[in-house]
Amino acid sequence: MRGVIPDATDSNGGPTGEPSTDRDEAQRDIQRILSSADVCVLIGAMTMSAALKDCLRDLRFNGGTIVAVDNVDHNYHADVAFRLRGPCEEIVSQIFAIGPNSRVLEDGSVRTYFPGISITSKGHSRHIAYAGITPLPDNTIPLCSKSYVDLRPPLISRPPMSKVELLALTDEDIVRLCKTSPSLTDTRLCRALLLVNPIYLLASNVVVKVGSACHLRESEAKAQALVREQTTIPVPEVHRFFEHEGTAYFVMEYVKGDTLDLCWNDLSNWQKLRIAFTLRNYVRQMRRICTPQTLQQAPGPITADPSHPLPCSTPSLGEYPVRSFTSQEDMRDWMNGRFRVSEYLYGERIEVPLFDDSAPLVFTHGDLCLRNIILGSDGRLWLIDFGSAGIYPPWFEAFGARDNEMFAIPKLWTAARKIAVGEYDVQERYARICQHAFSHGLGIPDPGEGWDPSSGDYF
Length: 459
Known about the structure:
Layout (H helix, E strand, L loop, with lengths): L19 H15 L4 E5 L6 H12 L3 E5 L12 E3 L3 H9 L4 E4 L5 E5 L2 E5 L41 H6 L2 H8 L10 H4 L6 E5 L2 E7 L5 H13 L7 E7 L2 E7 L3 E3 H4 L5 H19 L4 H5 L31 H19 L15 E3 L8 E4 L4 E3 L6 E3 L2 H6 L12 H9 L3 H16 L19
Helix pairs in contact: 1-2, 9-13, 11-14
């Protein structure tokens, strides 16, 4: 299939702002390309010259197809086979099955290149309208795209370290090296509002995740090592975890690639479907992981001693760490109490099934969203950030995969995550209601079973 995306033209029939000689040459090029084209895609708001309309009419007469994207000359519609709406970049890449190339210009704008066209976006706001094209609400660079980039200097890392070299480093050596290592922390708008632990590129194959000892815990390293030992899921190798003067340091393998929140909208629907079923396989493997906690059905982060459970910190239980639990029944009773607090805050009874404890506790990643999945340079799909992992009900995985902190859920991610983790719509609704109590009712005690929110009485 061959096609062309002609430029906008002015009322005189030539491309806007071009000298007469250039207009004539551009017109001849368009006529030459259209004379042998099978498909012509018209993009953006444009006024077509009589000569261009004649070329398109000849194309249709010879069995070709004309596709219009967005607001192409509403006076020209008779020969258009069908119209497409949506972000131009997404539609063009799907039609031609090509990957766009983007780079940032000196003025901060982003230029996206396709064969035969370049689209320039201005500024760094969340929604960026294409220059030269009528800015429609959906005519923006998708947030989960490589086109949405910022200006950052290239990373200059140290040469790769062998395991022997890494073992030879003391904890103090690693602390000192972090101070002179480039940071991988993402500071763009889509992540700037999130509290993320800084990650330093210690060498070209080693990174160090740094955080306060109360937020970055050894249970994350244990969960990551557990997945690597008992499954075939690609996860970074754990090298070391230690604390130094109240700060925790997690040393692990560096995986080259892009997290899915940066490239999801650049993938074809077929690629997204393959990722969904790959994740489905990963989730099934994780649910088969066996630990003393799964045997004793002790919920919470990974620990060597289930009789001493750790405080829980996972999206399904809110944005702040909560207490530890001795059993699934203990967790159920506590979370149902938070549900009743949410009813109190809303001032009404909410008809939804309570905590689902029908399935045994399993290993869950807990935060299986786009930013924690890497499409590696080696072609494999990697899982990272096991800070929310632990032994929890299976539906906790579904709520964590929602990516509740994103401004907008990318197309097809909802379908993909449901393929991966299963359908838990009712349980997700229950968890969403509980979030209100987790965020706004921290100091409010459980009103108890049988309390009527409509009575207005509480204390």
